[in-house]
## 1
Amino acid sequence: MAFLQRYDNPPNEQLKTLLSRNLGKTQSVTKQVSAILDAVKEEGDAALFCYASEFDGVNLSSLAVSLEEIQAAEEQVDGSLKQALSQAYTHIHAFHAAQMPIGEQVEVAPGISLSRKVVPLNRVGLYIPGGTAPLFSTVLMLAIPALVAGCPEVVLCTPPGKQGTIHPAILYAAKLCNVKEVYAVGGAQAIAAMAYGTQSIQAVDKIFGPGNQYVTEAKVQVSSTTCAIDMPAGPSEVMVVASPFSNPSFVASDLLSQAEHGRDSQAMLVVQGEKTEGKDFLDRVEEAITNQLTSLERTEFLTQSLACSRAFIVPDLNSTAHIVNSYAPEHLIIDLGETEDDALLERVVNAGSVFLGPYSCESAGDYASGTNHTLPTNGWARSYSGVSTDSFIKKITVQKLSKEGLTSLAPTLLCMAEQEQLGAHRGAVAVRLGEEK
Amino acid sequence: MAFLQRYDNPPNEQLKTLLSRNLGKTQSVTKQVSAILDAVKEEGDAALFCYASEFDGVNLSSLAVSLEEIQAAEEQVDGSLKQALSQAYTHIHAFHAAQMPIGEQVEVAPGISLSRKVVPLNRVGLYIPGGTAPLFSTVLMLAIPALVAGCPEVVLCTPPGKQGTIHPAILYAAKLCNVKEVYAVGGAQAIAAMAYGTQSIQAVDKIFGPGNQYVTEAKVQVSSTTCAIDMPAGPSEVMVVASPFSNPSFVASDLLSQAEHGRDSQAMLVVQGEKTEGKDFLDRVEEAITNQLTSLERTEFLTQSLACSRAFIVPDLNSTAHIVNSYAPEHLIIDLGETEDDALLERVVNAGSVFLGPYSCESAGDYASGTNHTLPTNGWARSYSGVSTDSFIKKITVQKLSKEGLTSLAPTLLCMAEQEQLGAHRGAVAVRLGEEK
């Protein structure tokens, strides 16, 4: 059975099409989201209660989840998950703590001292999608860097379940990361609430987190006027780079674990090697996919995603590097053997997160190795980094000039101000040096 | 003559209104920009030539400025400006070089190695506005961090003058910073060209730089679908914090140098001190403004901006810190005496750039002290930092797990994948540890 559309070293013109993402945002999403944003902006909590009833099918008495409920969640989470979250927490915390920047200080000339002051964002909003399973891993991925950065106020919004409650694993993960404000609000309306503020939910400075196309569109809309966001988001994707001598079962499992995320997930495979060997390898990968599929659920997502997946056979590292950097994958798994892995990594410039060698599966990074799983999709890896401690921090530049420092700069400042025809800019210098009043 | 609207320690409710920016984006700007973006996307260069004729009043034969033209500019720039640009370059380069991040590497547990690979953006676009005077300082502020970051391709777009040429000071500054691609394209159409690409101008990964409301709207529109931008921008602004014992001429000159930027610039003054002394001080500041105004041009901008300026008298550091952080000024000048300056700086969390003490005038940072002058306006300092070397860099996370590393993580990964109901995520671990095929 053939799952992967195969392409043998396609020429550049064809490659562009083959590496494209098929995302069509419908006009109706834009309009619906815009209407939801307006409603929340104008009616506040009332709109949120209304949408909870309409979209989540629950009549809530309060949007805020009580501290008692958060405390109580601890008893409902089983010991093995607690232990798992604890190990994940340790690794994620360690890696994000190492990312904490220190403000630099430079005296560029006598009497001209420049520095950057590192400040955490004051109030951040984390969005955790609902759906079939509780995404507690995303709670860790967003709340731990906020904690490491030292953000004083962290808010979490997530849609209520049918009973109007939040899954205890979400609440437990939030508590683990010291998140004290949790609201049972989901969808575009949650983004609106965090951007504009309502009676119950105070506006935040930046919104983080994944979501469906309504949530994503809402984030993009508020980002242009009101509230910063982590990044524009799209469906998840992986590019696996293997050789004909890689383990086909490992490769199959990586493609499948991407494909199960959703029906629009994209899994790409690049086989670097000789043509005939590459074809044989692809046969073995497909065989492994067939085998592994038998024990998996989510078959609807898996088959739809796999149908859009592509496999390329390319002759050398040059071609591989070109495909990788052209696609700019969210996740990049490289398994070409140690020397060749390092050589390719050296040349990777567009990717969200890289997984090196046969034992670095994407699930490790998704959950617990310590890297962040909130990553740029849809080619945004060309310009964006994934979420990190940096994402929760601002750097304010500070300068202090002595009279000596300003004097040494004066000829330059006066000349530039004159040529840019800014007389008062000139004056601010002249008046300080006693040349004008 | 009273220039500043005065407020004596206003209550919190009133403060919110007093610190608001008056920005009304008209629906017509959104539509006009959207039409320009569509035209450039569809017609490419043809649309650019058309707009050059329509908006800039020139019929261009080529959009690209030739290397000869860039070389020739050197002879047309006078020696004093060259010397000024050279000193500015040295300071800006030194401070931005100090900002260059180093990717961290952490082994969070045996066999689990995590790191971040620091990569410059591949191709960046710098927009330099036209207008009455050549903004060569902005060329330095954008092109130097791109150079420091190591961006391989740097593109500069700026509107052509009436003769179809670019001011030699702009070209000279570009050459100084090793910018090799310069295009005579301005306005929203320049942003479109850099975002989508045309026959002459290849698309970039991120667009930087200030501009009028059309340019700003174009940046915001492309940022949601196609191309990253530095930050949403608005009119320039300053908040000056002084005591009744500060030098009123210095303060007046700072307010004026902000006000001359444009008719929508905002200059705010906070006087921290006793009420009567504060009033006396404000009188002296207004007297100094009157004096200094006589020698200034740009009176239209100055009077319109000053009319929207506000002065607050507040009793203590608490109130000052509250006003500063609520306003989140682009530029913050603090002159309360050394000890109090430091105490306030300690409490500043929302500001673009801070100028400490009597000799740190904004013009110093605008031009040549070394800090960047591309800063968050309109309250965005709550969530954005100014442009820095960071803005030209991505950080790609990398992980490498040994079999031992994956084994130690396995129970956690299997547990989390099961609870999130992601069977293939579970499988990718199990198959690697020989538990499944």
## 2
Amino acid sequence: MQIITDIKQMQEIGNNWSNSQTIGFVPTMGYFHKGHLSLVAEANKNCDITVVSIFVNPSQFGPNEDFSSYPRDLQRDLELLNQYKVDYVFNPTPDQMYPAGYKTWINVEELSSILCGASRPGHFRGVATVITKLINIIKPSLMFMGEKDFQQIVVLQTMLKDLNFHTQIHPCPIIREADGLAMSSRNVYLNSEQRQQALCLSLAIKQAQEQYKQGIDDPQILKKNASDLIIRAGGRIDYIKFVDSVSLQEVKQAKDDTRILLAVFIGKTRLIDNAALGSY
Amino acid sequence: MQIITDIKQMQEIGNNWSNSQTIGFVPTMGYFHKGHLSLVAEANKNCDITVVSIFVNPSQFGPNEDFSSYPRDLQRDLELLNQYKVDYVFNPTPDQMYPAGYKTWINVEELSSILCGASRPGHFRGVATVITKLINIIKPSLMFMGEKDFQQIVVLQTMLKDLNFHTQIHPCPIIREADGLAMSSRNVYLNSEQRQQALCLSLAIKQAQEQYKQGIDDPQILKKNASDLIIRAGGRIDYIKFVDSVSLQEVKQAKDDTRILLAVFIGKTRLIDNAALGSY
């Protein structure tokens, strides 16, 4: 496992991949949990070379968000990666990625301004831009991303197709704690009471899936019930939406592949979760 | 010379370049003049493979601009290219490049909203986006572009650096008619009287260079004199600026590498020209 901190050095390696090799890339902001590691395992399974980036990307955080306090532990991350076949870890500095005078931004219109994009203006612009930079530096064939950030996957798939990148996204399922909480680096922000409250996201999803299975396909009813459950648990709802899994537009009638997406504040911590209604 | 109209087919060819080959790319909107052909010759001189794209890019034209009337003559263009070693001509349709639901745009901030960007909102967004698409499809090492579109080169160099593309721009000098008019596909719009008037752009540049050589380094004076010359000739000034050749910011004192940039309407035709003050 080679740790690369210099963009030019990583780019040089990327320039010399052979056309016959499949290069797997797992972009991360570090502070690994089992969700991240499942992506690395999936890259190992599908690719000849595995590259993991660890970069807390400042441009995807809003001015009042948690960029500076976002949890970081590079040493622990590297030890965890040692259990896998990771060929390269790319770990650049923000100053290298965004030097003085940086000016270029990528926007995926419509998809970036709804859902999490409505609550976090500029977030997906930062994500789209950093992923373009990382793809140009690393030149992967496949990029492994978790479905917890479902909107992120849709935004980036649209960008890759629109801009004719040859890199494809390989989406991987959400990894959950035993009690159902979706794994997230931000879960460390929760105290023990909040940790219990946080179950309301996965419980609201389960309830919606069960009610859909019982024949309720009106998103308004499903949403009201999810909302009641979350409020009772002490969560503050940012959004609950039932959307088409490709366009992310709200649906009028729920179907198996309709996605329930939700963002909920537990205390000051904003958590997200999602699932296909028919996947229960 | 192979003519490729399908994006996937061109991309397939691009995926299989060998790392040891230098791939030269000349992006054009067709309707070739000697300026375009000088770029092809330069690509031939510097590269193992030469790819020329012919694509009138709708996204860089404003709603009231000349997209539909922009001159096109593919047959003539291909005949002209036959005099050079062109390996591939890439000639996609607008529908292929921007299919229904297209959403992704690249903006190079600051540099895109001044000069031609102030007169043509969205122009450089369209240029930056189409060039990113073409680079991802063709994967060139070097891109040959004429200095007539000086701001375009600066915008794209900034984009390529910011987004960590490995493609580099190889700028090529402006090619002029015998009487000094910078070659442009839009020169066909000029009637014979306007063709004479159009000389005011290169004459204003020459005058500024001469006056600078004589010791006048105050951009205000140089600008006033250029402006007088153009108005006397019947031109309508869009802008005349004396700028730093990297930042494109206006300078307070002219130097050898200060660039005079101008955009002038001759009748309804908007022409541009530029030069370094010290290059006379």
